């Protein structure tokens, strides 16, 4: 089965989702990511979803789960690049993802992660 | 209201859900829906197609491009021969789920479209019809 | 729909020139062809083409239904005609009378042709009348649709014009909303704000509602949803200029403003935005 690649950038992990994910792929990413955080002692995760043209409740739940479990493992997750139409749809759907950190793009997300990690 | 074109799409596996989403996106674009409305419709279709696979044991999505005066729209029917929904009122409650999801599938989909109807009876499968207008 | 007989079609073919002349005279009489928006040459071309299409349509067979293939060319012609008339600003009466004014010349022709046979005359008069009515109705329908399209487009343009998203500072956008907000307008405006946030990479958006007299539940909910959507995208929103009545409405509706930053006016909101972006504002010297 194909998998979403996870790139390591210093103490952070970068995940760029570029395919229309089916549910198993999303679940596999969740597992892979928690395993990688643990193995590399990463301090932060950047989840770039700028290429996703929809996020339904399943993907939305995956994002919230990744954010929650990374926190438990002492890593912050920042979701970057959510498209306006996707954001509007998620809010309408009832998924507001409280507690999930967000940034406009990867660069700003990286800055946010650095700030967060420094203050801890 | 008249139907300009119509067709059907199998919804049996997770991969079908992805393909159904892509099909709905094409229909939404050809009907002239704005980007936000396209996104809402595709997202609603994704929720309902997933329900069809997980709870209905697989089924089909019938699609139709409809016209009424100058507005165009996309009508989708998700139907399965599964166990059906025993308590419809409960199923339409935010946060209620029988399958370990967030419970936003049906209620969320309803909020994303202009027309929504649900027909189901225990043992007789489920049929959800949605429509989004330009 | 009853059909035109071969004899009728032949008669029309033979008498094309006088028919056209009489039709033109009728149009002239009603004033339709004297309008400066359409040239005489154009009118002549349109009448000739239409008569030709009617003959072709009725003779290639099934005249029973306008929706059939034989009439597709005629339908296309009428649709084009209606559209161009609608765009030139004519009313539907003008557009339909273009076709209805052909009735009289045709009736006169039939009367001469069937002088010997009253029964056939009645049948053919009825057939011609029905055909022209159907074609006329089709024209009006298309005309109506074109007009509705024009109106819809104008409404959209108005919506976009009515509330511009402005850049206040590098990374700070403002949306000054003025006038009564309805649900649709709020939606369109909010979407364009979100789009501009992405395009400009702005991290702070100020929604100023000083110029909004009241909000209803739907609009208030929409404002809150927009603020949430902006957060999901990775930017921050500030709502400024909340009037006392609107504040009361929001509290009264029990809407949750938690996590939403509000400021009394646009100046305070900008000051906060600058501070957050790391700018310090002070008097020089």
TrEMBL record, chain A:
User: What species does this protein belong to?
Assistant: Luteibacter sahnii
Which PANTHER family does the record match to this protein? RSBT ANTAGONIST PROTEIN RSBS, RSBT ANTAGONIST PROTEIN RSBS-RELATED
User: Cross-referenced InterPro entries, in alphabetical order?
Assistant: Bact_StressResp_Reg, STAS_dom, STAS_dom_sf
What residue stretches are annotated with the STAS domain?
Answer: 2-113
Protein name from the UniProt record: STAS domain-containing protein
Q: Which PROSITE patterns does the entry link to?
A: STAS
Q: Name one Pfam family in it.
A: STAS
UniProtKB/TrEMBL annotation, chain B:
Could you tell me which SUPFAM superfamilies the record lists for this protein? ATPase domain of HSP90 chaperone/DNA topoisomerase II/histidine kinase (SSF55874)
Q: Which InterPro entries match?
A: HATPase_C_sf, HATPase_dom
**Which superkingdom is the protein from?**
Bacteria
Histidine kinase/HSP90-like ATPase domain: from which residue to which, for each copy?
37-130
* Pfam families xref list: HATPase_c (PF02518)
Indicate what this protein is called per its UniProt record: Anti-sigma regulatory factor
From TrEMBL, chain C:
Task: Return any one Pfam family short name.
Answer: STAS
Question: Which Gene3D superfamilies does the UniProt entry name for this protein?
Answer: STAS domain
| UniProt keyword terms in alphabetical order | Phosphoprotein
InterPro entries reported in the protein's UniProt record: Bact_StressResp_Reg (IPR051932), RsbRD_N_dom (IPR025751), STAS_dom (IPR002645), STAS_dom_sf (IPR036513)
- The answer on whether this UniProt entry bears the keyword tRNA processing reads no
Ranges for domain STAS come to 162-273
- CDD domains, alphabetically? STAS_RsbR_RsbS_like (cd07041)
- On the tree of life, the source organism's domain of life is Bacteria
Q: Which SUPFAM superfamilies match?
A: SpoIIaa-like
Q: What is this protein called?
A: STAS domain-containing protein
């Amino acid at each position: 089965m194909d998998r979403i690649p996870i790139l390591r950038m210093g103490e952070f992990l970068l995940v760029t989702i570029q395919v229309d994910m089916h549910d198993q792929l999303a679940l596999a990413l969740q597992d892979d990511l928690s395993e990688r955080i643990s193995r590399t002692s990463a301090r932060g995760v950047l989840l770039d979803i700028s290429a996703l043209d929809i996020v339904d409740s399943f993907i939305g739940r995956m994002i919230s789960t990744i954010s929650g479990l990374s926190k438990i493992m002492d890593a912050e997750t920042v979701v970057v690049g959510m498209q306006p139409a996707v954001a509007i749809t998620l809010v309408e759907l009832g998924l507001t993802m409280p507690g999930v950190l967000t940034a406009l793009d990867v660069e700003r997300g990286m800055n946010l992660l650095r700030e967060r990690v420094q203050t801890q | 209201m008249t139907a300009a074109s119509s067709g059907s799409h199998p919804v049996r596996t997770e991969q079908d859900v992805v393909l159904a989403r892509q099909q709905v996106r094409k229909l939404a674009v050809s009907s002239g829906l704005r980007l936000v409305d396209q996104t809402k419709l595709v997202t609603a279709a994704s929720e309902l197609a997933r329900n069809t696979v997980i709870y209905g044991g697989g089924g089909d999505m019938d699609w139709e491009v409809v016209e009424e005066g100058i507005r165009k729209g996309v009508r989708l029917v998700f139907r399965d021969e599964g166990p059906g929904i025993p308590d419809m009122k409960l199923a339409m409650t935010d946060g209620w789920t029988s399958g370990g999801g967030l419970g936003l599938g049906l209620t969320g989909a309803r909020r994303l479209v202009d027309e929504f109807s649900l027909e189901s009876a225990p043992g007789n499968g489920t049929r959800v019809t949605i429509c989004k207008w330009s | 729909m009853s059909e035109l007989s071969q004899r009728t079609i032949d008669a029309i073919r033979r008498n094309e020139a006088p028919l056209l002349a009489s039709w033109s005279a009728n149009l002239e009489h009603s004033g339709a062809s004297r309008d400066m928006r359409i040239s005489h040459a154009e009118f002549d071309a349109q009448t000739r083409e239409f008569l030709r299409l009617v003959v072709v349509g009725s003779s290639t067979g099934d005249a029973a239904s306008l929706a059939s293939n034989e009439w597709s060319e005629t339908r296309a012609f009428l649709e084009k005609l209606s559209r161009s008339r609608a765009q030139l600003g004519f009313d539907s009466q003008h557009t339909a009378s273009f076709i209805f004014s052909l009735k009289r010349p045709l009736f006169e022709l039939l009367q001469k042709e069937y002088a010997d046979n009253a029964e056939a005359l009645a049948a053919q008069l009825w057939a011609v009348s029905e055909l022209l009515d159907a074609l006329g109705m089709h024209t009006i329908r298309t005309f109506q649709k074109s007009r509705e399209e024009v109106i819809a487009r104008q409404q959209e343009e108005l919506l976009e014009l009515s509330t511009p998203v402005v850049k206040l500072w590098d990374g700070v956008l403002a949306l000054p909303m003025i006038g009564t907000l309805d649900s649709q307008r709020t939606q369109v405006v909010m979407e364009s704000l979100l789009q501009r946030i992405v395009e400009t990479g702005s991290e702070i958006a100020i929604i100023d509602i000083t110029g909004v007299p009241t909000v209803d539940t739907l609009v208030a909910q929409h404002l809150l949803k927009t603020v949430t959507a902006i957060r999901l995208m990775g930017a921050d929103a500030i709502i400024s200029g909340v009037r006392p009545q609107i504040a009361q409405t929001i509290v009264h509706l029990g809407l949750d403003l938690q996590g939403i930053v509000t400021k009394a006016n646009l100046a305070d909101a900008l000051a906060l935005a600058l501070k957050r972006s790391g700018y310090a504002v002070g008097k020089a010297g």
